[in-house]
From TrEMBL:
Domain Uracil-DNA glycosylase-like per the UniProt entry, residue ranges: 42-208
Residues forming coiled coils: none
UniProt-recorded name of the protein: Type-4 uracil-DNA glycosylase
NCBIfam families for the chain: UDG_fam_dom (TIGR03914)
Keyword annotations of the record: 4Fe-4S, DNA damage, DNA repair, Hydrolase, Iron, Iron-sulfur, Metal-binding
Keyword Hydrolase: yes
GO molecular function: 4 iron, 4 sulfur cluster binding; deaminated base DNA N-glycosylase activity; metal ion binding
Family matches, as Pfam families: UDG (PF03167)
InterPro entries, A to Z: UDG_Type-4/5, Ura-DNA_glyco_family4, Uracil-DNA_glycosylase-like, Uracil-DNA_glycosylase-like_sf
One of the GO BP terms on file: DNA repair
Family: Belongs to the uracil-DNA glycosylase (UDG) superfamily. Type 4 (UDGa) family.
Superkingdom to which the source organism belongs: Bacteria
Length: 223
C-alpha cells in the first residue's frame, strides 16, 4: 500500500480570517520541520494588499520573532522597496515554507539556514495557496528559486524569467485558485547579502528594478 504524502491541507481551517489561519499554522504537522523550529511564521501585512511578496522560509530571527522578513534580508527588502517607490505597509509578505529549516554549527551555538526540500515545499504549499485565495491580490512576486518553483513548478528557472509577466499554471492543487493574478519573479533579498561585495550594489539595483516592474503590473488606480 502506497502512503499518501503528508501536507498541511488537513491543518487549514475553513476560514477567510488571516488571524485564524496564523493561529492554526502553529499546530501544523504537515512535514517534520515543526519539530525543530521555534514556531510557525505566517504571513503578515495588509489584508487588503493588492501585491503579495513570497519568499522562501523564515530565517533565524524570523523564527524567534514569529514574523516574516524582520532579519537582515527583511531590512534589505525594506530598502529595495523604498528604492522602488513601494510602501511595505500596503503589501502582504509571506513565505513558501512556514517553519525554519536549519543546521547547527559544530559547537551548536548558531543555526544556519538550510534549503527546504521539494517535499517540504509541496507539503507547505496549501498554506500559501489559502493565503492567496483569501487575499486575492492583483500581483504576486515570487522571490528566489524556492518560492518560484513552489507555484510555477520544479522545472522553472528564475534567472530566465526576471522582468517578465507570468501566470500561475494549473499545477496539482493550485486548480482551486479562483482568480488569476499577475505573477513576476526576482531574487530573494538574502542572495544580495550573500553575493560578492563588489557586486552588491548592482544586485541591489536589479532587485529594486524587479520590484518596480512588479508595481507597474498593478491596476492604474493602485499605483
Amino acid at each position: 500500500m502506497v502512503m499518501a504524502a503528508r501536507t498541511a491541507a488537513e491543518f487549514i481551517p475553513d476560514t477567510a480570517d488571516l488571524d485564524e489561519l496564523a493561529a492554526s499554522a502553529q499546530g501544523c504537522k504537515g512535514c517534520d520541520l515543526y519539530l525543530d523550529a521555534t514556531q510557525a511564521v505566517f504571513g503578515a501585512g495588509s489584508g487588503a494588499a493588492e501585491m503579495v511578496l513570497v519568499g522562501e522560509q523564515p530565517g533565524d530571527q524570523e523564527d524567534k520573532a514569529g514574523a516574516p522578513f524582520v532579519g537582515p534580508a527583511g531590512r534589505l527588502l525594506d530598502k529595495a522597496l523604498l528604492a522602488a517607490g513601494i510602501d511595505r505597509d500596503r503589501l502582504y509578505v509571506t513565505n513558501a515554507v512556514k517553519h525554519f529549516k536549519f543546521t547547527r554549527t559544530e559547537r551548536g551555538k548558531r543555526r544556519i539556514h538550510k534549503k527546504p526540500s521539494r517535499t517540504e515545499v509541496v507539503a507547505c504549499r496549501p498554506w500559501l495557496i489559502h493565503e492567496l485565495m483569501v487575499l486575492q491580490p492583483d500581483v504576486v512576486v515570487l522571490m528566489g528559486a524556492t518560492a518560484s518553483q513552489s507555484l510555477l513548478g520544479s522545472a522553472f528557472r528564475l534567472t530566465a524569467h526576471r522582468g517578465e509577466e507570468l501566470s500561475l499554471p494549473p499545477v496539482e492543487d493550485m486548480d482551486v485558485l479562483d482568480f488569476d493574478p499577475r505573477v513576476t519573479v526576482t531574487v530573494h533579498p538574502s542572495s544580495v547579502l550573500r553575493g560578492p561585495p563588489s557586486e552588491r550594489d548592482k544586485a541591489f539595483d536589479a532587485l529594486a528594478a524587479d520590484l518596480r516592474f512588479a508595481a507597474g503590473l498593478l491596476p492604474q488606480k493602485s499605483r
